[in-house]
């Protein structure tokens, strides 16, 4: 994954650490792309924000949760950033979606195992699992908007 992307270490680290990304067209300028450092016709701004999280436990960290960073990048780096971010944070976004479903489907006095089985069955029957278990970037646009 990382071998096809030529990013500055600092930029790549930022993309990996911020759970939300949005990419916007901006007034074009000829400058150094802040993602790769090459002189480009930069017409995109990459906005990074969101909470840090533990990639193993998925627990979020509220430290500097309102911090945002903006980078000016060229067309190729904007697209690579979108793809890299989506792949890097896929598991976390899917976990958040599952937690959201579990909270809305919560039934009082139901055991955890029963809740998991019921929600899994409903999600499977509705096609949600099949729709959301792929990391196909053409299909999964709703999990990580740009």
Topology of helices and strands:
Layout: H1 9-17, E1 20-32, E2 39-49, E3 52-53, E4 60-61, E5 69-73, H2 75-88, H3 90-104, H4 112-126, H5 128-132
Antiparallel strand pairs: 1-2, 2-5, 3-4
Organism: Mustela putorius furo (European domestic ferret)
Protein name: Coiled-coil domain-containing protein 82
Domain DUF4211: 11-58
Structural account:
Helix content is 40%, strand content 23%. The protein has helices at 9-17, 75-88, 90-104, 112-126, 128-132; strands spanning 20-32, 39-49, 52-53, 60-61, 69-73. Strands 1-2-5 form a 3-stranded antiparallel β-sheet, with helices on one face. The protein has a two-stranded antiparallel sheet with strand order 3-4. Strand 3 and strand 4 (60-61) form a beta hairpin. Mean pLDDT is 83; it is low at 139-146.
Please state the CA-atom Rg, rounded to the nearest Å: 18 Å
Helix content: 25-40%
Instruction: Report how far the terminal alpha carbons are from each other.
Output: 20 Å
What is the quaternary state of this protein? single chain
Q: What does this entry show, briefly?
A:
The chain is of the alpha+beta class. The chain has helices at about 10-15, 75-90, 90-105, 110-125, 130, and strands at about 20-30, 40-50, 50-55, 60, 70-75.
Please name the defining characteristics of this protein.
146 residues, alpha+beta, 2 domains, three-stranded antiparallel beta sheet, two-stranded antiparallel ribbon, 5 helices
């Amino acid at each position: 994954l990382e071998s096809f992307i030529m990013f500055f270490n600092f930029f790549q680290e930022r993309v990996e650490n911020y759970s939300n990304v949005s990419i916007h067209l901006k007034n074009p300028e000829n400058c150094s792309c802040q993602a790769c450092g090459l002189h480009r016709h930069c017409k995109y701004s990459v906005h990074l924000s969101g909470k840090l999280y533990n990639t193993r436990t998925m627990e979020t960290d509220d430290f500097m949760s309102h911090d945002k960073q903006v980078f000016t990048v060229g067309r190729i780096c904007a697209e690579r950033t979108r793809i890299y971010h989506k792949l890097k944070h896929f598991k976390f976004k899917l976990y958040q979606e599952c937690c959201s479903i579990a909270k809305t489907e919560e039934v009082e006095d139901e055991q955890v195992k029963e809740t998991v089985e019921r929600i899994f069955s409903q999600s499977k029957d509705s096609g949600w699992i099949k729709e959301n278990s792929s990391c196909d970037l053409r299909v999964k646009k709703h999990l990580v908007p740009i």
